TrEMBL record, chain A:
Native organism: Litoreibacter arenae DSM 19593
Main subcellular location: membrane
Keywords, in A-Z order: Cell inner membrane, Cell membrane, Membrane, Transmembrane, Transmembrane helix, Transport
Pfam short name (any one): Sulf_transp
Localization, UniProt: Cell inner membrane
Family of the protein in this entry: Belongs to the TsuA/YedE (TC 9.B.102) family.
Cellular component aspect of the GO annotation: plasma membrane
Stated name of the protein: Putative transmembrane protein
Keyword field contains Iron: no
Cross-referenced PANTHER family: INNER MEMBRANE PROTEIN YEDE, SULPHUR TRANSPORT DOMAIN-CONTAINING PROTEIN
TrEMBL record, chain B:
Record's protein name: Permease
Transmembrane regions listed in the UniProt entry: 41-61, 82-110, 116-133
One Pfam family linked to the record: DUF6691
Keywords: Membrane, Transmembrane, Transmembrane helix
Domain of life: Bacteria
Species of the source: Litoreibacter arenae DSM 19593
Amino acid sequence: MTYETIFTPWQSLGGGVLIGAASILLMATLGRIMGATGILTGLFSPEGFPDWAWRAAIMLGMISGPLAVMLVTGEMPAIDVPVSTTMLIIGGFIVGVGVTYGSGCTSGHGVCGMARLSPRSIAATATFMVATAITVYVVRHMLGG
Amino acid sequence: MRILTSYLIGLIFGVGISISGMANPAKVLNFFDFTGSWDPSLAFVMGGALLTTFLGYRFVLRNPKPLLEESFKLPTRSDLDVPLIAGSAVFGIGWGIAGFCPGGALPALGTGRTEVFLFVAALLAGVFAAKAMQRVAAAKSASA
């Protein structure tokens, strides 16, 4: 399995600016934090229809993202999964537990919370960035995954 | 209006994630693999998103209220507690194992790839398991 990927500073920066633009627009219109975890889990919480509806609409919009990219470029965004299905499922479950206790993930804490200079988000982001780096090191260079 | 606005915001987010590389586990994992096949792209994603949002929030949060709602819904807590730090560490471990984070995986569902659906299903199972554990803990502390 090959791990090499091409460095894409401009696409990544452009994508980052769009992620930021979406976060600003959500705050400017509905006054909410753009957090993927909150939007997903809110779909399954009993808060009532108005909140469910905007979250469902954002979800649909997100899912349309790759399709819009395909319409323009003729190609789906690349998704290369260099881990086994077992690791994908175990990792997914662990992510679900972590974001629930940690009250957020890369979008909510890492972008929106950090942009508000929230101490909780800064601490959360620093923690998960370090934990992810250690995990990747252990999996790839100590366990040989 | 709220629905259309939300859809368009989700679309902008989804396009951003798609072109940034955040939906691609190989790129995400390589960002963290400093001693191996390092790909610094993700620093540009997070840097671009953070700087844009930081500047935009300066203007937006000066208004008394958002355009379509009566008030801003902002988290108000500022204390650091064990669930926040431990939860974030656990999230990082899962992210390092799978290579997908929720913000990357949700838009990636649009590609129709089986791997993304498996990850999101496992993610939801983890969320429900954690919420169940939180309810049990809350019930215990209420009855104690």
